[in-house]
Design goal:
CATH superfamily: Aldolase class I
Order of helices and strands: HEHEHHEHHEHEEHEHEHEH
Helix content: 40-55%
Largest sheet: 9 strands, parallel
Oligomer: single chain
């Protein structure tokens, strides 16, 4: 594989032409160490994950549940540095042909330098950013930088979002819109909240009214292949994080590979 970027939208469109949705897998960079996190990300793709969301460990992860918080703290204690993001993205892209998005809170990007961060991510072959703590109306700097670099920008939509905010999110996002299925922090749950289906319905309606055509992926709380299959009956993609992080913590690379394979079964069922 080359380090050139591959867009998430192209993968979603390709899978749509095959009559199925996409599975997006999240893992934090540097957990339990940098080399293992790269191997684990590659294992996800080799076992059925269509696109990767690699998390930048951060000291104040307000959206993340306990499983992900513990993993990112382990990475930080092991010496994670922001520059490791670009090392990881390039290493993964050299081994597998899947788009790699970086999920990051905004402060580390600001501290590194927005343009410098974007240029480094693009040069490493990254597809773009998922930014959980900035909204389109507060993200002018990132929107301008992503336009310059051609990187995807994935904003979040929540059940509490107003119709106006949903429309802003649809218009500002590129790649897909991240529909948060439940309020609160991330983490695997026994049942994916019915709010996800309602939220995607609201986004589809806003999409149709505005004349846009957006990809919608659902995340937060998805932990089984059956839940993936359920989500893909109404969304373009299912995003799994905490369940994969737990599998890596408990079973290493082989454990996370097995978990990815089980989740990918849901794609085939959808």
């Amino acid at each position: 594989m080359s380090g050139e970027s591959r867009s998430v939208a192209s993968v979603i469109e390709s899978r749509r032409s095959e009559g199925r949705g996409v599975l997006v897998g999240y893992l934090p960079i540097g957990f339990p160490d940098l080399a293992t996190s790269i191997d684990a990300a590659v294992a996800l793709v080799e076992n059925g994950v269509d696109a990767l969301e690699l998390g930048l460990p951060y000291s104040d992860p307000v959206m993340d549940g306990l499983t992900i918080q513990q993993a990112t703290q382990t990475a930080l204690k092991a010496g994670f540095r922001v520059r490791d993001v670009f090392t990881a993205v390039e290493a993964v892209r050299n081994r597998v042909d899947a788009p790699v998005l970086v999920m990051t809170y905004w402060n580390p990007v600001l501290q590194f330098g927005t343009d410098r961060f974007a240029d480094s991510l693009r040069d490493a072959g990254g597809a773009g950013l998922i930014t959980p703590d900035i909204t389109p109306d507060s993200g002018a700097e990132w929107i301008a930088t992503s336009e310059r670099t051609g990187l995807d920008r994935v904003f979040l939509a929540a059940p509490s979002s107003t119709d106006e905010r949903l429309l802003q999110t649809l218009e500002a996002s590129r790649g897909f819109v991240y529909a948060v299925s439940t309020m609160g922090v991330t983490g695997a749950r026994a049942d994916v909240d019915a709010a996800a289906r309602r939220l995607v319905g609201r986004l589809r309606a806003a999409d149709a009214a505005s004349g846009t055509s957006s990809n919608l992926c659902v995340g937060v709380g998805i932990s089984t292949g059956d839940q993936v299959a359920e989500v893909l009956t109404y969304a373009d993609g299912a995003i799994v994080g905490a369940a994969l992080v737990a599998a890596l913590a408990e079973g290493g690379v082989s454990g996370v590979a097995r978990a990815a394979s089980d989740l990918a079964r849901g794609v085939r069922l959808s």
